[in-house]
Amino acid sequence: MQGTNTSSAGRPRSDLNAVVFAATRRTVDELGYAGATMDRIAAAAGTAKTTLYRRWPSKGALIIDCLLDAFSPMPELTEDRPASLAGAIRWLAGKIGEPGVGAAFAGVFSDAVNDPALRELLSTRFQAPYLAMLRDYLGESEQRILLFIDVITGTLLHRMGMTGRPMEDRDVELMIDMVLKTFGE
Amino acid sequence: MQGTNTSSAGRPRSDLNAVVFAATRRTVDELGYAGATMDRIAAAAGTAKTTLYRRWPSKGALIIDCLLDAFSPMPELTEDRPASLAGAIRWLAGKIGEPGVGAAFAGVFSDAVNDPALRELLSTRFQAPYLAMLRDYLGESEQRILLFIDVITGTLLHRMGMTGRPMEDRDVELMIDMVLKTFGE
DNA sequence: CCTAATACGCTACTCGAAGTAGCGTAATCT
DNA sequence: AGATTACGCTACTTCGAGTAGCGTATTAGG
Hints:
Two copies of one chain form a homodimer. The first copy, chain A, has helices at residues 17-35, 38-45, 49-55, 59-70, 81-97, 101-114, 116-138, 142-163, 169-183. Chain A is built from nine helices and no strands. Chain A is mostly helical. Chains A and B meet through helix 1, helix 6, helix 7, helix 8 and helix 9 of A and helix 1, helix 6, helix 7, helix 8 and helix 9 of B. The structure holds a DNA duplex.
């Protein structure tokens, strides 16, 4: 489901993952998550829908890989805990504000609510790495880390979903102030 | 679009809104938001799909009315501000935990991300009353109230969407502690 | 060079759910 | 009685996710 294949025989996969991800974000940005059909994404990437389904088992899986691509690499965490957390939150808010990223995130999240397989994928491939990183960094219980993630991500996505636009900087700063009172030290 | 009609002539609408709302929540609880099709909701309510569409212009509009029904009346707010806010948060978490309510909420919210008309409906009919109430009660800027709503609702929905289950009480209490540090006084 | 193996692009299909049209019938008011 | 509106029903349109199968292209290895 990823990049170049390891088996030796046969025609290798052409190197179009990056093109597809860019086309996905562009299409979502222009037409919204629902408007970004697999047909349209394929057309924007200059390939065929069947090729997409050869690489990703579902639209949700494609979007998740596209988001993983958009959200890497992870943000830096230094010894200054409050500054690092604030930086990570600004980083997440910024990513969600990038064209197509927030809408794709909210869309796949919506789909996941009703699709246990997709939820599993979202939880395992998307949330788990950040959970592990934060648990190691903060040295707090998994319960608290999970709540931290729920608060940050949930708030940003709720704003995105309610207004259709990313959260403004001054509101991000307000949220940071609030969260740091509990998780800052 | 609501209850008994005011015009005098013609056959009056039968009194089945409450039945439909209950059927909707039951169906969403049993089959999930995506599985709760208009056909199935109609069948569960003992009516016809066309009747649903005579009363609500879309599935999203039906769900929103169903949620308005489930979330009324509003919680009590007393002079004790921290206790009132904590109570309101527990009330919201409890409602979202009721069978079918959280899933319906998350589902319609998901749809709204990609549907400006539905987003408008959600914002106007659902959020606006609570925004007004909280602004009057807290006497704070609309910006801060909106963030408060984003944090509470977003966090609860994110947990619901990520795990498929409502947030546990101890996590709700943790969230209350966090939020009260900023909005408690 | 030839063959096996795999990927590609394409057309055409199935399936399911939202939403619509139209009909005959039921209930209410004047 | 007649006008008016709602109901239940069947049938339909539309659209998007996902699939099947074909001919072709590209690679590795004999």
